[in-house]
Amino acid sequence: MSLLQKQQAERPLILCIEDEPDLRRDVAEELSEAGYSVLEAGDGLQALDLLDIACPDLILCDISMPGIDGYEVLEAVRAKGDDHAGTPFVFLTALADPREVVEGKRFGADDYLVKPIDYDLLLATIEARLRQVARLRSLQREPGDSISEAVLRDQFGLTAAEARVALTLTEGFSLAEVGQCLGVSRTTTAYHLRNIFQKTGARRQTELISILLRGRNG
What we know:
The protein is of the alpha/beta class. It folds into two domains: 3-131, Rossmann fold (3-Layer(aba) Sandwich); 140-217, Arc Repressor Mutant, subunit A, CATH 1.10.10. It contains twelve helices and five strands. The chain has helices spanning 3-10, 21-33, 44-51, 70-79, 82-85, 98-106, 119-139, 149-156, 160-170, 175-182, 186-200, 205-217; strands spanning 13-17, 37-41, 58-62, 89-93, 111-114. It has a five-stranded parallel β-sheet with strand order 2-1-3-4-5, sandwiched between helices. Helix 9 (160-170) packs across helix 11 (186-200). The longest helix is centred in the middle third of the chain and has 21 residues, at 119-139. The protein is globular and about 50 Å long.
């Protein structure tokens, strides 16, 4: 492997799914200049084909696209299994309707950026999400010692984002620390936590952690 190939292999890989060619090209150029490797897809079907042969570190995806929309792409990505289930997924959209944000979070989206794109915010969001993934990986212990995101998703029907919040709680972090660790706001943490309580049937945090850890062995 050449030095250039090695450097490219070490750069985080971002998949950008956007049906507007000019915007997609602009995003790709910004990401490349910021030190990322970029895969481009002009629609959802092309993106899913790419995911059969590549494993990006983060996915940027438009919502309104011909063929399958961004929600369907996200659902298909999460259904692909462990290789993609925990991949940070950020929606790009021209619609600033709060209902769109809620819908995206229900589908398991990690973030939501509104067009026209603020590239400083885009890069900051990507950096935060990649740091989040690195933190979570650093928390993982040996198999058998730690509950996994996959177990939480399968056992309790949690989304990827909810599973990350639940996993962080089982590692002994306080509610205030969860948001800091994952790079999300208190509002987002509370939103995911409410869903986790509903899905597990827990009423208190101590009860929730007990249920989650039992689920690991169940």
